[in-house]
Hints:
By secondary structure, the protein is mainly α. It has one domain (1-52). It contains one helix and no strands. The protein is rod-shaped and about 75 Å long.
Amino acid sequence: MNNIYLFAISTGMGFICSFLILRLSLRKKKKEKTKKCEELKDEVIKGLQKLK
């Protein structure tokens, strides 16, 4: 009986940890993507100001 409980607890913890890691990695990718977008936006604004 104890082995079943330990197995259930360990698999549950494994799923929770994997979801947390996945969420953190997705959040990091999203930050990098928004940073690139901001840099591109700044470059476009600078280019337009040079044209004036």
